[in-house]
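Researcher: I'm preparing a figure for a lab meeting and need a structural model of a single chain. I don't have an experimental structure, so a prediction will have to do for now. The sequence is pasted below. Please return the structure as tokens so I can convert it later.
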Amino acid sequence: MTIVLGPNRYGKAETRVVGVTRDGDTHRIKDLNVSVALSGDMERVHLVGDNTAVLPTDSQKNTVFAFAKKYGIGEIEEFALLLARHFVDSRPAVAHARVEIEEYGWSRISGGHSFVRSGTEVRTALVHSDGSDGPESVVSGLKDLVVLNSTGSEFHGFAQDEYTTLEPTDDRILATAVTASWRHRGTGSDFASSYGEARRCLLEAFAGTHSLSLQQTLYAMGRRVLEERPELCEVRLAMPNRHHFLVDLSPFGMDNDNEVYFAADRPYGLIEGTVLTSDAPDAPAAWA
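Model: Understood. Here is the structure written out token by token.
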């Protein structure tokens, strides 16, 4: 039996960098969490401890800070591409770079320099690059986008077995925290506009779909994005069903006409799916 080294990568995870742009008395905040992973000719470091090809993860962290100063932080997809191309182009042993960024939103309170965190929603970007002259992919997205429909949702006609206790319903609360990612056809999108419009499509489809299941709603949301955004070719969605159960108030002599619910945080149904155009190119194997 022969033992060999399989796929591997290394990098600096979760570098927190905050950029402040000062335009006189008006400031702008970019608050990021940046993770870098590099792969390539790394066999000798694993097999014999030869570190010649290894760029320390501390250097990767420092590069994030230096690039924030040198280039500023614009759209997170563009910042991720800058970093990924740099690591591949500047290090002969590095053949591929994966850069993942989360952006935390801040809203201005008043004046030019006071801010408040913008809820729980997080913007995301994932870039894969084989260097400036090699294949690249850009995936944008968001997570923790919490949405709720207080009516317009049903669930019935489902399979039943000896363990089924769930009652069919033609009126229920539908709530979820959306994690969505969408793949660009290239690297030249107007990322700010694309993000805003994709997010709008998700919200409008969620609100506008009379839902017979969360699966149906998921597909409608992904389809709306692809119908309206030609620069995108694939949408992946993960949507936990945040169950709301009608409370039985009859012991207290009260009716409950879909007015009072118990919100259960776990266990929960988790609905996941991919929606793509028929001409979508193959996704990178390392999307995840």
